Amino acid sequence: MARLEDDQGRSRPEFGLRLFFGADVHPAVTLPAVTVNCYAYKLYLFHPHKVKVITMVFRTPLMNAWLHQSGVMSCVVLLLTGVIVAQDEKPKEPAQDKPAAAAEEEKLFEVPDGSATELFAFMYKVKRTRPKERTSDASMAHLKLQVQAVLAACDKVMAGKPDEADEINVINERFGALAALSRVDRVAGAEGMKTLMEALESDQRPAIVALLTARKLSQKVASVATMSEADRDAFVKELFTVIDENGLDRTIHSLVSKVGSTLGRTNKSEAGAEVYERLAAAMEKCDDETLRARAGRALGSARRLRLPGSFMEITGTTAEGEDFDWSAYRGKVVLVDFWASWCGPCRAEIPNMKAQLEKYGENGFAIVGINLDTSRDKYQGYVDSESLTWTNLMSDKDDEQGWDNPLAVHYGVSGIPTAILVDQEGKVVSLSARGQQLNRLLEDLLGDVETGDSEN
């Protein structure tokens, strides 16, 4: 099964959607106010002896902003970006005359008359349809038909003089359709997007202004990692000016969180921490009760980004119910791994962790797991099946499990695996110690045990 991950291989919560690839991300992270759009497409999974094609549904909230932060695990050709909801491959249907098949497919996209609610339901249905033929040309043609149908349905909704809420939904549907169109017809998509943006510029209703502002900001978020320091500072100032003038909503919160996260992953940790601190202050004062309750997590993210070169404190209870003694690990190189048994990238890293523990365990390497499961049975079942020998922290209290694990909250962990490496002095040397990065760091800190060149 393929997954979308960031450049550290972690499923990201900023997409703001639940059950992202089997809930590899925090399920309570902010859901942007922008309506989500989806378009049926295909994901190609390459295997040693065949290519398996699975039809997927792509949801595209703030598509351009997140495209550049997404990666695809395994060898995957991905033509659209966003959250993927897998659908089981249906048995092959009997061969059908091509003109007849095309005519039948086009009937699916005939826009009916109806209320706004009925037309939005039609759009949802259209976006979940699949092409009759599994060829590139057929898929592209199908996508164009989807886009045309959605745009036509939007026109019908507007002809009925909808209320402001439905009008905003129409605008978001149009943005999503045009973003999808740009993947197969760049010129048409760009022209349509430009026309839509220009039409909205003259609308001074607060809700429309806020929506358009978020769209513009999202385009800048995609390039924040490559901005100069001056441009980055100006952009961050622009974000918080929007918050000061219009208040903090979930869409802007999602964008600012993305900026902090991106800076933290691109060796600009202090800048990222400052963004999170300012965001936390805005969250504490905002009207949204959910955001206010999560202000502490934003502060935790700032705390985590400032860990490199500093001491990391760990307290809690082990899965066996004993008090954890962090001082017993002083003098060792310790991998602090935030993980869960349901997390695919976490499970994928286990073999390498075992290999490094076998290689360096006698030279002073240890692992401490911070488990984010909500079921002790599932946790224990996985530990037993994989013969995991290292200590894991997991509370017996229901309100301290999963993403509510106190250490996950304290360090603002909202995407897993989060692998933090601590040196012999107890100071953090890496916030992303996974795969070859972990292996290189262990060799630097403990020497090449195969040649006997050890620092201990």
Describe the overall structure.
The protein has helices at residues 63-67, 98-107, 116-127, 136-159, 164-181, 186-201, 206-221, 229-246, 250-265, 269-285, 289-293, 295-305, 344-360, 376-386, 406-410, 435-446, and strands at 4-5, 38-46, 51-59, 71-72, 76-77, 83-86, 333-339, 365-371, 391-393, 418-422, 428-430. It is built from 16 helices and eleven strands. The strands form three sheets. A five-stranded mixed beta sheet has the order 9-8-7-10-11, covered by helices on one side. Strands 5-2-3-6 form a four-stranded antiparallel beta sheet. A two-stranded antiparallel ribbon has the order 1-4. By secondary structure, it is α+β, with helices and mostly antiparallel strands.
Work out the helix count. 16
Mind describing the biggest β-sheet? Answer: 5 strands, mixed
| Distance between the ends | 42 Å
Order of helices and strands: EEEHEEEHHHHHHHHHHHEHEHEHEEH
Unreliable spans are 1-93
Estimate percent helicity.
40-55%
Structural class: alpha+beta
Offer a few descriptive terms.
single chain; 456 residues; alpha+beta; five-stranded mixed beta sheet; disordered N terminus
